[in-house]
Design a protein that fits this description.
With 166 residues, this protein is α/β, with parallel strands linked by helices. The protein is globular, with a radius of gyration of 18 Å.
Length: 166
Amino acid sequence: MGLVLAAVSRYLARMGSMGVRIRIVGDREAVSPKLRNAWNEAESATAHNTKLTLSVAFNYGGRWDVVQACKSAMEAGVPPAELTEARLSEFMAMSYAPDPDLFIRTGGEVRISNFLLWQVAYTEFVFSDCLWPEFGEAQLDAAIESFRERDRRFGGVKEAPALAGV
């Protein structure tokens, strides 16, 4: 936890000055109050920034996210008859961000490991044997090209790739 605290304090001012908004996504109850306070401070200090949102997943899991969204909806008094996919999405930890169009998994793994389970319903996947530190511009270009070549379907409806024109 000390490493996380050091990173927050070291980079917060710099990212803030660059217009980066920081959002922490995950179960905050399982971390120390000191770390929770640092996260709250980082989010508050950068809440006005609009150039880029940096989402940091820490102690996050897709199953946790679905459960916490259901609990939050119930606490908000959402009647069962009004609980739709769209309504539940409002309570997901990353409700502020669009669902991903492309998910790149490095290191030879061919699973999503409990990450963004709700959000990846219509996401395209690219699996790479390349380890993350070596995953560079050439690998990213290849992943984007693979994405561009796909016919995206959302419940049977064909849609042009979101990165067309990049």
